[in-house]
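Q: Given only this backbone (418 positions), what sequence would you predict?
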């Protein structure tokens, strides 16, 4: 059996059922897996992936292995691992996994170092913890890495900062910035799964409540849209004037967090930044306010501030809910320890939307191996996105028009005016 560190291999039967169920809704990735199995484009390549270990990710791992990759998979968040899926990947699919739900900080980074010690030629990341650790602690291994794929907004922010500072030493692809990813995964995936996680954790009735959405990027847009559709009065807080304007014209209230804190029933951070909700906001919140995060890292809510303000803390008053009692008796409920609510309290994005994201990951990996790329943060090639989009439409039974030769000529010319 491959090397591994998972909770319990006896969980594998249930994990296999989840993997197979997700695979039913991932036809584009399945099509790629069939070609990879035949063509072996990743033959002999050592790969290390730091991703959320879910049923959907399992099908990406199966695709990479089918293509010939020698893969090690570790978790990109301590609370996002589905232990039965991790067990099944090891036992049923012979893929090396190091991930346990609830693993502590030390174990989390031990697993990441195990992935790096695999001496990867290709890496995948969701938040850039693997790549940043590789650069900081294993600079001698960088020369072997042909490329890396980054899955999330937070990771892209970190990688662009590394490149700007001259610290980045390998080519990386901003998979998150691909339209086949952020327009669908971020908007529809995060939007729906964030709602799912909050309701599972709290049994919260959305209709009539004031829901504060911190951040109006694609994830924030998706979540705000769904809250509005379920009857909430949605308030958006932003620091970007264009996004604030867009939120206002989409019909949402827009105000500073200092004002929203006074009236919100539910607060959700989806920004990718640090301490979006902090002491001065907690001090203004009303009794019973619920606070959750759907950004990648657990830094968007300043939990230290909340701890300092509280005279009492009651853990797990409900699964994934901690109660903080402030000095004046007001209660604030923190969900999932401030970690990704959609994965900590639910199952993450639906498989159908991850079909496109992970198809983009798989094909971009193949592209990275076939091309010698300069050190930079690269965009996913348009031909990959177009192929995935057309393939997805085909699986949905949707046909679209094609440009005529006359139309192509018109779009490429300048002579014809009014």
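A: Predicted residues:
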């Amino acid at each position: 059996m491959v090397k591994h560190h998972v909770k319990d291999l006896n969980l594998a039967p249930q994990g296999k059922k989840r993997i197979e169920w997700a695979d039913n809704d991932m036809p584009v990735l399945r099509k790629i897996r069939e070609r990879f199995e035949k063509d072996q484009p990743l033959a002999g390549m050592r790969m290390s992936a730091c991703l959320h270990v879910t049923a959907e990710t399992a099908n990406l791992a199966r695709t990479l292995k089918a293509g010939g990759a020698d893969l090690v998979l570790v978790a990109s968040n301590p609370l996002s691992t589905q232990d039965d899926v991790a067990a099944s990947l090891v036992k049923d699919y012979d893929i090396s996994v190091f991930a346990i739900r609830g693993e502590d900080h030390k174990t989390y980074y031990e697993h990441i170092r195990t992935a790096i010690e695999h001496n990867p030629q290709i890496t995948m990341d969701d938040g850039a913890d693997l790549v940043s650790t590789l650069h900081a602690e294993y600079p001698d291994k960088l020369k072997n890495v042909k490329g890396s794929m980054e899955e999330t907004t937070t990771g892209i922010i970190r990688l662009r900062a590394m490149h700007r500072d001259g610290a980045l030493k390998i080519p990386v692809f901003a998979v998150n910035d691909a339209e086949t990813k952020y327009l669908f995964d971020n908007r529809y995936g995060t939007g729906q799964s964030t709602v799912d996680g909050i309701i599972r954790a709290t049994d919260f009735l959305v209709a009539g409540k004031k829901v504060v959405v911190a951040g109006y990027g694609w994830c924030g847009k998706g979540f705000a849209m769904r809250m509005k559709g379920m009857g909430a009065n949605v308030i958006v807080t932003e620091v970007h004037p264009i996004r604030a304007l867009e939120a206002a014209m989409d019909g949402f209230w827009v105000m500073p967090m200092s004002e929203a804190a006074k009236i919100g029933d539910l607060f959700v951070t989806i920004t990718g930044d640090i301490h979006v909700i902090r002491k001065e906001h907690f001090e203004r919140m009303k009794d019973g306010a619920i606070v959750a995060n759907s950004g990648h890292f657990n830094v968007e809510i300043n939990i230290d501030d909340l701890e300092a303000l509280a005279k009492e803390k009651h853990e797990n008053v409900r699964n994934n809910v901690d109660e903080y009692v402030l000095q004046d008796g007001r209660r604030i409920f923190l969900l999932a320890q401030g970690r990704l609510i959609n994965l900590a309290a639910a199952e993450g994005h639906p498989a159908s939307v991850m079909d496109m994201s992970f198809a983009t990951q798989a094909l971009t990996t193949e592209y990275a191996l076939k091309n010698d790329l300069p050190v930079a943060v690269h965009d996913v090639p348009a031909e990959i996105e177009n192929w995935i989009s057309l393939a997805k439409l085909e699986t949905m039974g949707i046909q679209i028009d094609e440009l005529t030769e006359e139309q192509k000529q018109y779009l490429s010319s300048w002579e014809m005016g009014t």
